[in-house]
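Q: Give me the 3D complex with beta-D-glucopyranose.
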Amino acid sequence: MLKKFRVVVITLLLGSSGMQAQTTVPVYLDDNKPIKERVEDALAKMTVEEKIAMIHAQSKFSSPGVPRLGIPENWMTDGPHGIRPEVLWDEWSQAAWTNDSCIAFPALTALAATWNKDMAKLYGKSIGEEARYRNKNVLLGPGVNIYRSPLNGRNFEYMGEDPFLTSKMVVPYIQGVQSNGVAACVKHFALNNQETNRHSVNVVVSDRALYEIYLPAFKAAVQEAGTWTIMGAYNKYKGEQACHNQYLINDILKGEWGFEGAVVADWGGVHDTKQAIYNGMDMEFGTWTDGLAWGKSNAYDNYYLAAPYLKMIKNGEVGTKELDDKVRRVLRLAFLTTMDKNRPWGSFGTEEHALAGRKIAEEGIVLLQNKNDILPINLAKTKKIAVIGENAIKMMTVGGGSSSLKVKYEISPLDGLKKRIGSQAEVVFARGYVGDASGDYNGVVSGQNLQDKRSAQELMAEALQVAKDADIVIFVGGLNKSDFQDSEGNDRKELGLPYSQDKLITELVKVNKNLVVVNVSGNAVAMPWVNQVPGIVQGWFLGTEAGTALASVLVGDVNPSGKLTFTFPVKLQDSPAHSVGQFPGGNEVEYTEGLFVGYRWTDKKKIKPLFPFGHGLSYTTFDYGKVSADKKQMASDDKITFSVKVKNTGKRDGQEIVQLYINDVKSTLERPEKELKGFEKVALKAGEEKTVNFTIDKSALSYFDDKKHDWVAEPGYFEAIIGASSSDIRSKVKFELK
Ligand code: BGC
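A: Here is the predicted complex, encoded as structure tokens.
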């Protein structure tokens, strides 16, 4: 057998001028042949056992190739924000290698808040290089599930509430990753918008909300970015697990969108052999077997798509058509990744990657409030800076679930500030409260000892004392990566800040009105003190260079230019899923708010949010001119361009994110008051003016007609609305679709 398929077969051919040596390789190994032909050739050479082996795991994060044919194994890695440490063969625990400490990039919420597609490309390219160097051919990310409730424990891994913004940001991320010969695995497909009951909850959602809100980012990932893999979600839809779901996978993903890649199960997301066979599941991972301790020689043989499938084939219960389809997809993955001789080698833990992460972090930080220009910190006039809060010192890259990392280093906000400020001012610190003192995840330890036996009163008293005579107080608090906060597996229990931080903030501002609150989180939090505190910064989880990036923004080396990608409600009841009483539900959750997620809801209900979608300030100011359209009417096969002048009217260079929303003035079906359909991040020097253009076609005017099961752009009047946020509307222009 081995000889028959030797990698290189030398044949001697007789030429006209005599004997001539020529090298022939089998089609599947011939780089010059189209991938489709190579796939068919390899498939034809495989036994049914080899095929079955290829479609399920052999360890926690790997699946077999075809050793006999020289087709390598697949090695997957979390996650969206950095390359997970190596784990033991059959355990979640880290394997304690000493060469797998990565660069942590900012969480995807921070990336999305840059509203900068170049940053998404840089992110994807950099993290892809890290994955490639570590010999992974599938990166389990990015996550694009829509932000439906501020309590979802995994919001920090996603890109916010808007399908258009998420779609535009995910495409360059994927292209960047895949330029390394590493597949992106876009997750979690689909409707995985909460952690409570995540393995069992059945999501009930209208077709309109499904197509208009929850699916567009996945569709863009498939059709615009050409993602090579997609991860099925844990939850159910129409009563079937999303990992083997006729509607989501067969009908929509592979049917309507023509996805040619492989559907990877979320770890333990497969529950049924027949459904997995027929409903599009291609690669099974993480099924809850107890590994080798199960008493079997290899527990992976017990996976739904392992021995049980083979048995069904052997006894004639099922055919092999579906098996061949799955294997084709997995082979395609191999040819695009491990079998691509020209893919680059990647690089890992480099300064270049740390700098990329820092740049993204600096662009993603959002200045939410800046009364009396409290920021940037004026170092010329500042002698003493008080830094208060646990998140100023706590490592945030350890914990939070599958995105937890083992990092080369992580600069805390306190260290970042100290380093930047140096001897220019005194930096004093008090913790103020004890939140989560742990720092251990799957065997990775932060090495920090955050135990503190002092009482809450003592801690607060110390903080107030330290804050009292400082020139400025920077409170760094928010959430963290422990359970029931920004963490996988559970949802948050409340919108408010934990550990009595509200009380501490309220007391701090009483002793020193020059207070800036930096909220480190991947979620909206309530801010009952918003009117008392002059400065508020959304700090996200920023990764390796967190403290450096934060310090750059706080002292004004970098002019903040991030904007929110989800609404901050004043209270939980202002958030649609909670207002309709459908979060987290029981065994079933019905998205009765329909299309009205985020700003679509606050617009409809005329609710004033704490901070709206698209909001973010700068240390400079921008004036907007009046938007104009290049025509009054557009035909349905035509395009229309809107132009608006934007001027930097302040004294600093800065970047502004100009947003285009569309309002369908009159429509047969109910539509949101406005929807984001364009955005541009424009860099303007002090005093500079630029014209920003947006060109759209009818797709920006369309809604999903559930009766026709198609997108419809209804003739009639529309408005193009230019905003600096979803609430800060600068001008509008009307036009007609003929
Ligand atoms: C998570 C995925 C992750 C996988 C592997 C699952 O629990 O939902 O996002 O990629 O584990 O760690």
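A quick observation: The CA atoms of residues 439 and 447 lie 7 Å apart.
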